[in-house]
Design goal:
70% of the residues lie in helices and 10% in strands. It is an alpha+beta fold. The protein has a single domain, classed as Up-down Bundle (Outer membrane efflux proteins (OEP)), CATH 1.20.1600.10. A 4-stranded antiparallel sheet has the order 2-3-5-6, with no helix packed on it. Helix 3 packs antiparallel against helix 4 and helix 4 runs antiparallel to helix 9. It is elongated and about 130 Å long.
């Protein structure tokens, strides 16, 4: 008996956990960004590229491994190698010319800073994509709610039209139109459900999560809000010149190309070689020796000439690429700014005029239809005007917030900057 009560209690507790787990999960825009930065595999891969660049730095500044040699000389013919008269144990180390070694380290450090700029670019791009996907998903949820409201109203008026038709107070055309309208809003509801599922899947993809099989329980998202953008186009252009990671990457690329060009010239100078040896001769092991050598760049006319020409061409190419990136970012900021301002003007128009007028038309038409002053077709026109206004306002809210995200991405500033 006691075991049965325990089993029932366990089952009740388990079902309660499952029920709570299937409830609505609230996800704010800040939480979505935090999850994406932590779990998005694309950004994780960019961070690994940074780790690879850090590893290459130590590889580039490391000298080649030293050489340890053992030589035995003056061995009588037909005797074993142990019967030598002279033995040398030598340790030899080759080194680059000091300036060349320094330039290699500088070039590697510049490559690492380029990788850091790439990670920053990927981070800013991911944040913008998460914001746009979040706003799109929120808009789809609002449209889904609007579609559900429309179905309720259409079903109510369809039932009223049927009652009026059977009572002889409405025409057959009015009754059939109400039925057709109900079918259309039901189809619109299904389309809204599909769009909501797709938008949420896109958001979950950016967050690095797999979409669960339960699609009937939507995630609770923050409401769409509107606030006018501050600043000016000139200020945004100035900020981009200072903080945009793509510009930083191209400037670092130009610096790295300049370092490579200098390195190509300095590599003409000879490398160095130092050695130390211990010697044994005629049974006496108290000898030592050392050596210093330089490489002879006899073939520099062929080898280094090609490297110098290639490095010089790469430097000129990086200068053109930097200018092209500057122009492209300036155009992107201008386009994003104009798009944002146009979206804001549309929002202001809806808030100041269109929404209020369409709602007033709908209220008047609803009262007139209830009192028999207008037909269902006339009311339907008013209702469709309100539906269109609300739907377009939701689209405008999504667009204005997405435009802000695209402007932030074009500027290249992190949200807290």
């Amino acid at each position: 008996m006691r075991s049965d009560r325990r089993a029932r209690a366990f089952c009740t507790f388990f079902l309660l956990i499952v029920f709570q787990a299937q409830g609505q999960e609230r996800l704010s825009i800040a939480q979505a960004i935090e999850i994406a930065l932590r779990q998005n595999p694309g950004l994780a891969a960019a961070r690994q590229e940074l780790g690879m660049a850090s590893g290459r730095f130590w590889s580039d500044v490391s000298p080649p491994p030293p050489t340890l040699t053992l030589t035995r000389e003056y061995i009588p013919a037909g005797r074993s190698p142990a019967q030598f008269q002279e033995q040398s144990i030598a340790l030899n180390q080759n080194l680059d010319f000091p300036v060349s070694w320094y330039l290699k380290g500088e070039h590697s450090a510049q490559s690492r800073r380029q990788a850091e700029a790439q990670v920053r670019t990927s981070t800013i791009s991911l944040i913008a994509r998460v914001k746009i996907a979040y706003y799109t998903a929120r808009g789809c949820l609002d449209k889904l709610e609007l579609a559900g409201e429309n179905v309720t109203i259409a079903r109510d008026f369809s039932q009223r039209a049927e009652i009026r038709f059977k009572a002889g107070e409405a025409t057959h055309l009015e009754y059939q139109t109400s039925r057709v309208q109900l079918g259309q809003v039901l189809q619109a509801l299904e389309r809204s459900k599909k769009e909501e599922r797709v938008s949420r899947s896109q958001l979950m993809f950016l967050l690095g999560k797999k979409e669960e099989g339960r699609v009937e329980v939507p995630v609770s998202l923050d409401s769409l809000e509107y606030s006018p953008a501050s600043g000016s186009l000139e200020r945004n252009l100035t900020m981009a010149d200072q903080v945009n990671p793509q510009l930083s990457f191209m400037r670092l690329k130009k610096e790295a190309a300049s370092t490579s060009a200098s390195l190509a010239w300095w590599n003409v100078l000879p490398g160095l070689s130092i050695s130390y040896l211990r010697q044994s001769r005629d049974g006496n092991s108290g000898y030592y020796g050392f050596g210093v050598g330089v490489s002879l760049p006899l073939w520099a006319l062929f080898d280094h000439r090609g490297k110098i020409e290639a490095a010089s061409a790469a430097l000129r190419a990086s200068e053109f690429e930097l200018k092209d990136t500057e122009n492209r970012i300036e155009v992107e900021i201008q386009q994003a700014w104009l798009e944002l301002k146009e979206s804001e003007r549309l929002i202001e128009l809806y808030l100041s005029d269109l929404l209020e007028q369409s709602e007033e038309v709908d209220r008047t038409a609803r009262v007139s239809y209830a009192s028999g002053e207008i037909t269902y077709l006339e009311y339907l026109q008013a209702r469709q005007l309100l539906i269109q206004s609300r739907s377009e306002y939701i689209d405008a809210l999504v667009q204005v917030n997405a435009s802000k995200a695209r402007l932030e991405e074009a500027i290249g500033a992190m949200p807290n900057e």
